[in-house]
Amino acid sequence: MDRPIVIIPSYKPTETLVKLTEELAAEFSLLVVDDGGGEEYRSYFERVAALGATVLTHKVNRGKGAALKTAISHLID
Q1: % of the chain exceeding 90 in pLDDT
Q2: What is the pTM of this model?
């Protein structure tokens, strides 16, 4: 059986995103949406990707609802 999926929309993350990913990665598949925070936050998304999360990126901030729609569309495809 596949692991449950956790969707995490994120705009301008902090170290907390990395810690959360570390804690959840053993039990869940993680789908993180970079909601357009910009270049200065890229390293956080690279780190969570290295921990096994799938990262989808919006070039500009579109809001939490749009980030969730992006994640769900990705899962449906």
Answers
A1: 95
A2: 0.93
